[in-house]
Amino acid sequence: MTAIILDGTALAKEIRKDLKERVKRIREATGDQPPVLATILVGSDPASEVYVNMKGRACRRVGMESLKIDLPEGTTKEQLLARIDELNKDSNVHGILIQHPVAGLEDVERELFDAIDARKDVDGVTSLGFGRMSMGEDAFGSATPAGIMSLLRHYNIELSGKHAVVVGRSAILGKPMAAMLLNANCTVTICHSRTVDLAGQIAQADIVVGAVGRPAFIKRDWIKEGAVVVDAGYNKIEGEYIGDCELEGLDDKALAYTPVPGGVGPMTIVTLIQQTVESAEKSLGLSAETVSA
């Protein structure tokens, strides 16, 4: 058995081709007004700056615009809420992203996220969006889990009836990932730092999602033959990027797995851009089918 490589880089490239055409049609319908993603960065964390710049480049690749808002460390909750309110009311802004972590305001991040208009919550971080998504209603999903689901669908990975184990319970990855898999008719187990016999839980899984943020935390020996391994980890160790799973040796053990890098990461960014385009289409009363025709 040779494992299928779930190539997020290749799929993201395909999706961008479609998004370019959709953005082109939107600009034609609006007198050259492109979809706009507003990104808010508080403070000067170098890693956050890199991520924000990556998202700006991703916007430009498909003909969108990125509105980059840099705020100094020391920005108050009230000042940031006021800025979010301005963006909510700006009809030319179709998506709002607050770069996590929010320097100096970590303890009120949930309040800040929930201030984003659900119609512009293209990163899928609001409580309202999560609730709607988990109930199977129309909502923008958290970008990384939504990107993972797109990748699994593209490679025709069977989900219905499968046992999925999600390792991690964060509000923007582990929990929404579990809800999306449940909505796809998986039987879902969520594991975390307090889980007893983690290796035993993973050994039963048809699908393993590493979303814990610890390098090589999930061992190859724990994974059963023929499982699908989705590694959402991205840990920089001595200049190299390592996922949450031990990927070496999975070629002759797993049914499929995501590489690191090149698996989940590109899908996260392209999903964010895709959902911004969808937000623009909805605001204009257009459908993806109409603008892609």
Description:
Strands 1-11-8-7-5-6 form a six-stranded parallel sheet. Strands 3-2-4 form a three-stranded parallel sheet, with helices on both faces. A two-stranded antiparallel ribbon has the order 9-10. It has 293 residues and is α/β, with parallel strands linked by helices. The chain has helices spanning 8-29, 46-61, 77-89, 109-114, 127-134, 143-154, 174-183, 198-203, 264-284, 288-292, and strands at residues 4-5, 36-42, 65-71, 95-98, 163-167, 187-191, 207-210, 228-231, 235-237, 240-242, 256-257.
Report how far the terminal alpha carbons are from each other: 40 Å
User: At the first level of CATH, what is the class of the largest domain?
Assistant: Alpha Beta
Number of domains: 2
Taking the sheet with the most strands, its summary is: 6 strands, parallel
CATH topology of the largest domain: Rossmann fold
* Count of strand segments: 11
Topology:
Layout: E1 4-5, H1 8-29, E2 36-42, H2 46-61, E3 65-71, H3 77-89, E4 95-98, H4 109-114, H5 127-134, H6 143-154, E5 163-167, H7 174-183, E6 187-191, H8 198-203, E7 207-210, E8 228-231, E9 235-237, E10 240-242, E11 256-257, H9 264-284, H10 288-292
Parallel strand pairs: 1-11, 2-3, 2-4, 5-6, 5-7, 7-8, 8-11
Antiparallel strand pairs: 9-10
Helix pairs in contact: 1-9, 2-9, 6-7, 6-9
